[in-house]
């Protein structure tokens, strides 16, 4: 036997306690960045999600799609206004956002999972009143923040061995369609499900300290301190804020991990190595 086969068998054996640990656990995955960038990366991600379902986890995929939205807006000649660097989402824009997210991007992920032998169903937050939204900021138009999340449709899909794939759109109380930030949507869904893990796939290696080193585990209080000190800055702030909101709402832990790594989700869940920065409310065991 080759050393590769022996190493594979050892890896499977060492995964046993993690497989037992996560049996029937809910894991919400925010998909974005590199993992959506190529067919090869998408197929690898889809295979990992199917494996999670096969070994007894309940994975939920929430996706973004900003670059695809920008491309379609440009192709259709829909001009955007910006306020403080943020796009104003008017009715014409949200129509394109819904077309791209619910139609193009969502179905691409569903097909990728089904192609790997899984059973996936595409939804948006508008389906079955999954996410009811309030307007985030009137100056930004139809951008919403989830105010009510009803996870019953997701629980029914779990019972049917089906993997939900969710586009970050929500309904308003008056029938509006709201565009939701993908991380925010994933955090709200994870909180409603009281998920064991929320995995935020990014194009960075994790949360870094003042020396530029990735911190593999952080308590919520440490995240706040690092943000106040300016160590956590820029685009990492909204991700860590999503993590804080989620753990405060009952998610067991959030991991900001490097989606550029092959099999990043499996590394995080089923090995000692991990693949990013884990954020929880209290130290493990407390």
TrEMBL record:
Residues covered by the Aspartate/glutamate/uridylate kinase domain: 26-257
Binding positions (substrate): 65-66, 87, 179
Major place of residence: cytoplasm
Molecular functions per Gene Ontology: acetylglutamate kinase activity; ATP binding
Pathway: Amino-acid biosynthesis; L-arginine biosynthesis; N(2)-acetyl-L-ornithine from L-glutamate: step 2/4
PANTHER family reported in the protein's UniProt record: N-ACETYLGLUTAMATE SYNTHASE, N-ACETYLGLUTAMATE SYNTHASE, MITOCHONDRIAL
Protein name: Acetylglutamate kinase
């Amino acid at each position: 036997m080759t050393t590769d086969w022996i190493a594979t068998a050892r890896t499977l054996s060492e995964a046993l306690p993690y497989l037992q640990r996560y049996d029937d656990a809910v894991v919400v995955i925010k998909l974005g960045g590199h993992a959506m960038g190529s067919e090869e990366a998408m197929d690898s991600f889809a295979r990992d999600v199917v494996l999670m379902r096969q070994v007894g986890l309940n994975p939920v995929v929430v996706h973004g799609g900003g670059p695809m939205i920008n491309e379609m807006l440009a192709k259709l000649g829909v001009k955007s206004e910006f306020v403080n660097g943020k796009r104003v989402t008017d009715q014409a824009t949200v129509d394109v956002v819904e077309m791209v997210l619910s139609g193009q991007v969502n179905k691409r992920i569903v097909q990728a999972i089904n192609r790997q032998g899984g059973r996936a169903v595409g939804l948006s937050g508008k389906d079955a009143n999954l996410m009811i939204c309030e307007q985030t900021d009137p100056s930004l138009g139809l951008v919403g923040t989830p105010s009510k999340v009803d996870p019953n449709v997701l629980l029914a899909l779990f019972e049917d061995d089906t993997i939900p794939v969710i586009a970050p759109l929500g309904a308003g109380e008056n029938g509006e369609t709201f565009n939701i930030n993908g991380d925010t949507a994933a955090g709200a869904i994870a909180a409603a499900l009281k998920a064991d893990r929320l995995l935020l796939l990014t194009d960075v290696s994790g949360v870094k300290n003042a020396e530029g080193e990735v911190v593999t585990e952080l308590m919520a209080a440490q995240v706040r301190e690092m943000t106040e000190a300016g160590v956590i800055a820029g685009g990492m702030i909204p991700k860590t804020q999503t993590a804080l909101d989620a753990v405060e709402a009952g998610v067991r832990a959030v991991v900001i991990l490097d989606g550029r790594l092959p099999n990043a989700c499996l590394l995080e869940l089923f090995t000692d190595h991990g693949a990013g920065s884990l954020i929880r409310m209290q130290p493990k065991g407390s």
